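User: Here's a structure from my thesis project, written as structure tokens. My advisor, Dr. K., wants to see whether a designed sequence matches the one we expressed. Can you design one independently, without my sequence as a hint?
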């Protein structure tokens, strides 16, 4: 039986983060068919696109989204156009998309420019966008916590820990937990911990009051969207560009920030930041247990360790760490 996208005990990682092996599991989503958790949401989105009669799948991506979109489009005999910003690419992931026969459209500009172009293109009849604003992706990604909780026989852990990029996972996990709680499948609500890269830490800045001394909250649906807008204006003015070697979470303006805040409110969540070096250490120790994951996934490990060191995660807490993707890029 091959590796599966279900939780595993990893003794060396447990020791590294400072938890007993029986209290912590890691779920490597890299064993999905295109090598990342993106497949969970993409299968739902492409299915919906097909139901709607779409002939062409469209996305803006530099990485795992394009690999996943291209794979499902090829499976379904659909076209797939990928809009990529010049010079902001993860070669390993893009070469996967090439192999699946996607058409690459190079856009002169940054990711936001490529994204805007892709949304224009998606207005064409028969075209269908699968970018992170697509709600079916959020629905499909609920299978990640479903699988984790099923493994734990619906005994909810104290924590579920994710790297934070566009915050699709955070949003999806929050919605999943709201529903499971409402339906009575779980009694206790695990806390979500979102781990940002130091060089792409918009959520950490806003959530933890590092901009204008205001802690951004969902606030029962009345989030301070002006604060977000002002921070983005400040970022643009000061030419602050997201910068981390973990390209999957190199995102300055998370598309799902509001839904993410809602998830954090429902689960009494926390947000923290780790450095590139800490992420590399995290992914390395996963490797020592015979699993490979990409650098962004190392954020889950580094984040658990950091929250343990600060005693936010307690010694006997039960923790699930999500390893979002498999290693695809050359490390040297
Ligand atoms: C997309 C991606 C992320 C970021 O996930 P979000 O849901 O956008 O926060 C993290 N790790 C990997 C490997 C990814 O592909």
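Assistant: Designed independently from the structure alone:
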């Amino acid at each position: 039986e091959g590796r599966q996208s279900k939780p595993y005990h990893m003794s060396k990682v447990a020791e590294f983060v400072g938890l007993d092996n029986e209290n912590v599991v890691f779920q490597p989503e890299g064993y999905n068919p295109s090598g990342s958790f993106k497949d969970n949401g993409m299968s739902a989105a492409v299915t919906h696109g097909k139901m709607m009669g779409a002939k062409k799948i469209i996305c803006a991506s530099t990485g795992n989204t394009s690999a996943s979109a291209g794979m499902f489009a090829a499976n379904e005999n659909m076209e797939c156009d990928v809009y990529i910003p010049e010079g902001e690419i993860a070669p390993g992931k893009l070469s996967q998309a090439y192999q699946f026969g996607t058409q690459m459209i190079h856009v002169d500009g940054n990711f936001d420019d490529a994204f805007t172009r892709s949304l224009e293109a998606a207005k064409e009849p028969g075209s269908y966008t699968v970018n992170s604003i697509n709600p079916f992706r959020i629905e499909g990604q609920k299978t990640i916590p479903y699988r984790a909780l099923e493994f734990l026989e619906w005994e909810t852990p104290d924590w579920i820990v994710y790297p934070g990029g566009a915050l699709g996972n955070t949003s999806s996990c929050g919605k999943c937990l709201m529903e499971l709680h409402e339906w009575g499948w779980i009694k206790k609500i695990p806390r979500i911990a979102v781990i940002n890269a130091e060089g792409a830490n918009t959520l950490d800045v806003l959530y933890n009051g590092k901009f204008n001394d205001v802690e951004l909250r969902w606030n029962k649906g009345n989030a301070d969207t002006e604060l977000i807008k002002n921070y983005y204006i400040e970022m643009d003015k000061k030419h602050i560009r997201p910068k981390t070697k973990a390209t999957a979470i190199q995102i300055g303006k998370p598309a799902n920030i509001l839904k993410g805040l809602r998830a954090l409110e429902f689960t009494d969540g926390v947000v923290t930041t780790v450095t590139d070096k800490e992420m590399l250490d995290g992914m390395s120790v996963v490797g020592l247990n015979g699993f490979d994951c990409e650098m962004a996934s190392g954020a889950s490990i580094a984040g658990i360790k950091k929250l343990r060191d600060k005693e936010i995660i307690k010694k006997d807490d039960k923790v699930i760490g999500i390893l979002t993707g498999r290693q695809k890029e050359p490390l040297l």
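When you compare it with your expressed construct, this may help: The first strand starts at residue 24 and ends at 28.
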